[in-house]
Amino acid sequence: MRYDTITSDQNTISYNTDSPAQPNKLNDGLTLHFVFGGDARYSIGKRELTLHPDQFLILNNGTKYTTKMDPGAPVDSFAIAFDQSFLHNFRKSGQPYDQPLNETLYPLKNDLRRHVQQLKSYMDEGQQNEALINESLKQCLENYDLIYTEEISGKLDQLQFANRDTKVEILRRLNLAKEYVVSNYSQNISLNDVAAHACLSVNHLLRTFKQAFGQSPHQYLVQVRLQRAKQLLRSTALPVNQIVNMVGFECASSFIRLFRSRYGVTPFRYRSFWELS
Question: What are the tens digits of pLDDT across the range 143-201?
């Protein structure tokens, strides 16, 4: 299934279940990229990152990128490209959307997830009510703004530097570190690997990462691995021991202990609760 719908306001809403590779694509308008199933790998300049179903990616107008998909692993991809005039009318403060810091991965939180899924339902059903679609688009933007404020503006405030330009540059590098962890969580990555990818010394990475995100890079890596494991427990019937290896843990007992500590239940009980719901 595939569609590319252009509204009367020149916003484009796209869905693709085939998800072929898209080489050298030019992003048209500020675009929110999502996947509802599978993972999509993006190349943006020298950056390599992976988009998972519990995240979304922002790309600005004119950004060049390519996508790569694993053969035999279809991806349900969904994207909303906002026309510049629509954005200007929505945000009358004059603050531009095209900001270098905003091009990164964000957590797909409940309100935005709900509005995006509602918009997708409208498009799947062939909804022709433009007012309804535009209201849904505005709700998506409103929730993106809230997430941006928390994930970018809020993190800038946490960095302990006097100069704002320094804060912006450090956060840009920290976002590269987070992208690297998210995209390589299943591998045996080291702190040196993360620091090198972010162009920071290990000490500088440790200090500033904790300031911005309230946890160490290793703690963030464990969090990502547990989130991926939770997703696999919910969406597949794979054995727990196999999931442990897939998400990068070496020991099943430590994985079970960490999972229970974070979520309050064992992986087995979590899966049984989900199957009964």
Answer: 999 999 899 989 999 999 999 999 999 999 999 999 999 999 999 999 999 999 999 99
Q: How far apart are CA 185 and CA 183, in angstroms?
A: 6
Domain boundaries, the chain: 2-158, 164-214, 219-276
Instruction: Give the global pTM.
Output: 0.90
Edge-first strand listing for the sheet containing 55-59: 2-6, 12-16, 76-82, 30-37, 55-59, 105-107
Fold of 219-276: Arc Repressor Mutant, subunit A (1.10.10)
CA distance 164 to 157: 9
Is domain 2-158 given the CATH code 2.60.120.810 in the classification? yes
Instruction: Convert 258-273 to b/e letters by CB count within 10 Å (16 or more is b).
Output: bbeeeeeeebeebbee
